[in-house]
Design goal:
The chain has a single domain, classed as Alpha-Beta Barrel (TIM Barrel). The longest helix is centred in the middle third of the chain and has 26 residues, at 182-207. The protein contains 14 helices and 11 strands. It is 45% helix and 13% strand. Helix 11 (274-278) links the parallel strand 8 (260-266) and strand 9 (285-289). With 370 residues, the chain is an alpha/beta fold. Strands 2-1-11-10-9-8-7 form a 7-stranded mixed beta sheet.
């Protein structure tokens, strides 16, 4: 990629290390994305008067993105990313569910009342003339255009599969469907798999020509197609047998469709599905989110060991410096991807230095013991 926000030498090194991580070949230090204010003050961006316009005004969204990138220092292996965002339920909105915006998120209202009415696969079709698809495509197209030489435009937040069905049907009713009327759900899940791939291919037509590579809401970068799969928050409510019956094929096929993939494992109740998730051969890493009110990263070292022993990397966001150092003391550093925030350029560089020193100390102790 090309960017005015990172020096060429450090950019090329960041690209190299990001690619090594997705291939499972990073072996020295964690992949570290450390973001900090760079001390510059870009021109202010005036917000539209209405809440909806703050989400939907393409010029405003891109002006904010440009201002944010211009004011950010990309430490360690970080690269500038813009994530076009209309909220986690945008996929369900593309399928016809009414979308409502809040200041920091959005949601949809269920529309599946009778599965018989949705038995025709054509009902699970995204209308490219629809309001929300046209808006998202324009946000992405313009981001890729404006971001050429500046940032990489990320894939959508694709809560497809069982989460999309939960949004379209309602979680309580979908839970009952899994027990007493499973066949329509299975048919819908097969359609969801195809739609996931179709959406990614359509986004590729907008993102890839810019030559900036790919990214996601989780950050991370690849010159190939790197995407987040398994946005399955609903799976916290089902047992492993149901996961295998309704979700496994969908996640496995989407993993196989891309060059690199990251599974979003959200909350302690989702851990029960880890053995099945580790069976995805092409899965690169797992994004572990402990959830609100849960203990911090170092509480989950045994879980991360299980993930790494299963041949996958571990991705975590909002990690504190001392937590990162502790993780490096107990885990394989090269199989860690940590996203962190710092107070300044100097603080960001110091965090990278301290984490790498901890890894060097660990290696030195291993050699001395041998």
């Amino acid at each position: 990629m090309e960017t005015i926000y990172k020096e060429e030498k450090t950019r090329l090194e960041a690209e190299r290390r990001n690619e090594l991580f997705w291939r499972g070949e990073l072996d020295d230090y964690p992949l570290l994305w450390v973001l900090a204010p760079n001390g510059k003050t870009p021109p202010p961006v005036a917000a539209p008067a209405s809440l909806d316009e703050r989400w939907m005004n393409v010029d405003y969204v891109l002006d904010r993105a440009a201002a944010g990138c211009a004011a950010t220092y990309y430490g360690g292996d970080a690269l500038p990313v813009h994530f076009p965002n209309l909220g986690p339920d945008i996929f369900s909105a593309w399928l016809g569910a009414p979308l409502t915006f809040a200041p920091d998120t959005s949601w949809v209202h269920p529309i599946i009342e009778d599965w018989d009415e949705w038995s025709d696969p054509a009902r699970f079709t995204i209308d490219t003339r629809g309001q929300w698809w046209k808006l998202y495509a324009e946000l992405t197209r313009r981001s890729a255009e404006v971001g050429r030489g500046r940032w990489v435009t990320a894939y959508p937040d694709l809560h497809t599969g069982i989460d999309a069905l939960s949004a379209l049907r309602g979680p309580d009713r979908l839970n009952m469907d899994l027990l007493i009327n499973p066949e329509p759900v299975k048919a819908a899940m097969r359609r969801m798999t195809e739609l996931f791939k179709w959406v990614a291919d359509e986004m590729d037509k907008l993102i890839l020509p810019a030559g900036q590579g790919t990214s996601n809401w989780t950050l991370g970068w690849s010159a190939g197609r790197f995407i987040v799969v398994g946005q399955n928050d609903f799976t916290c409510m089902i047992n492993p047998e149901m996961y295998r019956e309704f979700c496994w094929d969908d996640d496995n096929e989407t993993c196989n469709y891309f060059d690199g993939s990251l599974y979003h494992l959200d909350g302690p109740q989702a851990i029960r599905h880890l053995p099945d998730i580790l069976a995805y051969k092409k899965l690169s890493a797992i994004n572990w989110v402990p959830g609100a009110g849960a203990p911090g990263p170092t509480h989950w070292i045994d879980l991360m060991r299980r993930i790494q022993a299963g041949g996958k990397g571990v991705h975590m966001m909002n990690v504190q410096p001392q937590e990162a150092i502790e993780l490096c003391r107990h885990l394989e550093p090269g199989k860690l991807f940590l996203v962190m925030n710092a107070r300044s350029i100097e603080d960001a560089d110091d965090i990278v230095r301290r984490v790498r020193e901890a890894c060097d100390d660990r290696r030195a102790r291993s050699v001395s013991k041998a």
